[in-house]
Amino acid sequence: MNITKELLENLYHKENKSMRKIAAELDVGKTTIEYYFKKFGIARRTREEANLLNPEEHGWTRGLTKDKDDRIARLSKSIKRSCAIKRKERIARIEKRFGKPIKELLIDLYVNKKLSQEQVSKKIGYDRKIVIDLMKEFKIPKRPKYQYISSLRGEKHSMFGKTWDKLYSKDDLEKRKRVSSARFRELTIKRLKNNEFPFFDTSIEISMAKALLKEKIHFIKQFNIDNKFSCDFALPQYNIIIECDGDYWHANPKIYDRKNPDKRQAINLKRDRFKDIYLTKKGWRVLRFFESEINENLGKCVNRIKSAIKGREELKKIPSPIDNL
């Protein structure tokens, strides 16, 4: 059969046949059809378009999942086993090369030698995502971002080791602080009004949101209160606020000494206290969960939220003295 551009376009675009079906109909190989498509410059469908037009040729588009189909479930388990075995073998090779367990190696490179996660991954020859997962698994705490940003400057940088109080006089420094504080406050209010917070969801906020959705608890993210505060989660129907606090930034008392916090922790603790007092006066109940609590036992955190909801529901049922008048 003489394969022409008109013939192929008619079968492919008008009759919506796949390249595989066209090849079978013309009794040639699929690669032959691909050759003629390229030769004649015939536009091909995207993968998504092909899946929609010919779902019978694509088993994965028929709604089958590992929960519904035994074959896919077995395949999924097989892939996971294979990946786990390969991961163990690779870690064993890294441990043999450096002569120490992977946990000790990560602590030595990241904590002692102050390498970044990217530098650690290049040093041991392993993907950065795996390095991050291993650090979480071994509970190796990440350095605060400001330390990492400072380390990027390096000793040769003109500003290395210098602070504002060394660069400015006392009066100039106070003036600079006042101007910066006023500008930052105006910017914060503007972003709160325009609902521009946050720039991104933290990992613990993502985990909390998924858990609340799973429990079918309706919430509003980054809830604006009087243009003063942005709260991580709000349950307005119960007047409950949920805050997900990083261990370092909010000085988790199980890890940090709150009697001797550093400057950033002291600022955040002061703001947290003011925020809690303000919200409580407004009738909100504030529930705070630390990063380590969420990562270690998210279910326990959710149970605490559900208990608070139940308490608020029971409170609403208590009749007011005015009702009896």
Summarize the structure.
The protein is of the alpha+beta class. It has 15 helices and four strands. The protein folds into three domains: 57 residues; 71 residues, no CATH class; 120 residues, VSR Endonuclease (Endonuclease, Chain A, 3-Layer(aba) Sandwich), CATH 3.40.960.
Strand-helix topology:
Layout lengths: L4 H10 L4 H8 L3 H11 L6 H7 L16 H29 L3 H11 L4 H8 L3 H10 L7 H9 L10 H4 L2 H24 L9 H12 L5 E6 L3 E7 L4 E6 L17 H19 L3 E6 H6 L1 H20 L8
Parallel strand pairs: 3-4
Antiparallel strand pairs: 1-2, 2-3
Number of helices: 15
The beta-strand count equals 4
**Shape label:** extended
Percentage of β-strand residues? 5-15%
Order of strands across the widest beta sheet?
1-2-3-4
Order of helices and strands: HHHHHHHHHHHHEEEHEHH
Name given to the CATH architecture of the largest domain: 3-Layer(aba) Sandwich
Overall CATH class of the largest domain: Alpha Beta
Radius of gyration: 30 Å
- Poorly predicted parts: 320-325
CATH topology description of the largest domain:
Endonuclease, Chain A
Domain count: 3
Alpha-beta content class: alpha+beta
Report the mean per-residue pLDDT as an integer. 84
For CATH, the homologous superfamily of the largest domain is named as VSR Endonuclease
| Helix coverage percent | 55-70%
Q: Strand count, sense and closure of the main sheet?
A: 4 strands, mixed
